[in-house]
């Protein structure tokens, strides 16, 4: 039997879990490495990934609401994909800024990016397969 969960509650729980796991990971990396440059690099990567996740979520919700109100699905898809590529460009600019100008460690920035998406996958699998949640 599947338990039903509202998509807004699911997303809120997902965002909270990402925040908790990221905070723990940042704290542990500071305790182990004791170098603020690496920790700031990790925070920058986590921040970029979280902002991408947050804006993707909001854009998806807005496009779906517009389609429900009468926007053609083709225009909705075009709008969503256009914003996706703009977000990808903004991510590239931020990565360039953090690596070349601020001189943060690229490995730890990428580790932060990877960490958020890895957490998304693990938390979603846990909720959908092990807890048998159905998002409504």
From TrEMBL:
Record keywords: Cell membrane, Membrane, Transmembrane, Transmembrane helix
TM segment ranges: 12-32, 38-56, 77-99, 105-125
Membrane topology: Multi-pass membrane protein
Superkingdom of this protein's organism: Bacteria
Tagged with keyword tRNA processing: no
GO cellular component, one term: plasma membrane
Localization terms from the record: Cell membrane
Name under which the protein is recorded: ATP synthase subunit I
